[in-house]
Design brief:
With 211 residues, the protein is α/β, with parallel strands linked by helices. It has 8 helices and 5 strands, in the order E-H-E-H-H-E-H-H-E-H-H-E-H. The radius of gyration is 16 Å and the shape is globular. Bound molecules: thymidine-5'-phosphate.
Length: 211
């Protein structure tokens, strides 16, 4: 495992929690403060990742087993870390990533029921052991989150049972409670500007140091 001079911030949360908006706003703040940074997302962020993203998210007339799902997300991640995240961090950038390994633990592990040791092994292989420095969870009830998303577009994950989304919410809260030094939990129902202010106040002292 290699030490990186950069800094990795990930955003996590259930459907409709607003993490993509917050990831973008945090990236904008970093830019405004002339902190070299990069914004990316999972699944996606590379040409291969974008193709796999569409396979995973769009509703199709074929099934994808939980294990296939795990490997498809992990293929995206491996390519993204190698081509985008690792080079940016080696160059000393702050990387903001919309979802990362914790999504796999929660969605494929807690919600789909795959073995957590297997997930840990696959996550570690795909990332070369890279771990986020900070993870911001936007916590929202599944009912509220899905309601927000219905107004936009319902994908393969949105149409899962409510119990699936409940395990995701609880899974995230459990992960955050186990590792409070890494996680910042924010109430996703707060106004967008307030959330972005809270995220920035938390991140700023961590990334401004020595830059
Ligand atoms: P999003 O970009 O709108 O958050 O959509 C990504 C979807 O993929 C979302 O439903 C969560 C799911 N997902 C997993 O199930 N496992 C993963 O490892 C990742 C990164 C996402």
């Amino acid at each position: 495992m290699q030490a990186h001079p950069g800094f990795l911030i990930t955003f996590e949360g259930g459907e409709g929690c607003g993490k993509s908006t917050q990831a973008r706003l945090l990236y904008k703040k970093l830019q405004q403060h002339n902190i070299a940074s990069l914004l990316t997302q999972e699944p996606g962020g590379t040409p291969l990742g974008n193709k796999i993203r569409s396979l995973l998210k769009d509703k199709r007339d074929f099934t994808i087993s939980p294990l296939s799902e795990l490997f498809l997300f992990s293929a995206c991640r491996s390519q993204l870390v190698q081509d985008v995240i690792r080079p940016a961090m080696d160059a000393g950038r702050v990387v903001v990533c919309d979802r990362f390994c914790d999504s796999t633990v929660v969605y494929q592990g807690f919600a789909r029921g795959l073995d957590l040791h297997l997930i840990d092994l696959v996550n570690t292989s795909a990332t070369g052991g890279l771990k986020p420095d900070v993870t911001i969870l936007l916590d929202i009830s599944p009912e509220q989150g899905l309601q927000r998303k219905k107004k936009v577009h319902e994908d393969r994950f949105d149409s899962e049972e409510l119990s699936f989304h409940q395990s995701i919410r609880q899974g995230y809260l459990d992960l955050a409670a186990k590792e409070p030094g890494r996680w910042l939990v924010l109430q996703a129902g707060l106004p967008v500007n307030k959330l972005s202010q809270l995220a920035w106040e938390y991140v700023r002292p961590l990334v401004a140091h020595g830059r």
